[in-house]
Design a protein that fits this description.
Structural class: alpha+beta
Number of domains: 1
Distance between the termini: 52 Å
Number of strands: 7
Length: 153
């Protein structure tokens, strides 16, 4: 419900999951589960990005420590499995309405196209982050777990 008591309309947003494990530290030789604010595998909703910069996305999801909805900017490389979804959650819709920058998608088709672009961008960003650096042994990073790494050494 909005401040005047009218119900919020469902919106097409992009949902994604936080990577279960991410490379971290000097040379990417350490692994950390999820991110500081989200658990690995957590479902988040993308409500926008900075103008011209899709490597940082504004997300809404349940926080690692409080399990309450939080809104924060996070690196696209820490997300995967982008998909369009119709959101009915009042908490997510309220946070989306409070976000100052408008989204680039409004209907299902636009959200699906944007989700596909973001999925490709996230994979590219993950690959570029540690390009030429060998993976730790054993490695549980997202690329190794999904078979996306070309060299898992």
């Amino acid at each position: 419900m909005t401040g005047d008591g009218t119900p919020l309309e469902p919106l097409w947003l992009i949902a994604a999951n936080v990577v279960r494990w991410r490379r971290y530290g000097v040379g990417g030789q350490e692994l950390r589960p999820g991110t500081k604010s989200y658990r690995g595998g957590a479902k988040v909703y993308v409500i926008g990005s900075r103008p011209g910069d899709h490597e940082v996305l504004t997300t809404v999801g349940r926080g690692r420590h409080t399990c309450r909805y939080i809104t924060l900017d996070m690196a696209t490389r820490h997300l995967h499995t982008f998909r369009a979804t119709l959101v009915h959650s009042p908490a997510v819709l309220r946070r989306d309405a409070e976000f100052p920058v408008g989204r680039a998608w409004g209907c299902r088709e636009d959200a699906e196209e944007s989700a596909a672009r973001l999925e490709a961008l996230a994979a590219e960003c993950r690959g570029a982050r540690w390009a030429g650096v060998p993976h730790p042994t054993p490695c549980r990073c997202h690329d190794c777990l999904t078979g996306g790494a070309l060299t898992a050494g």
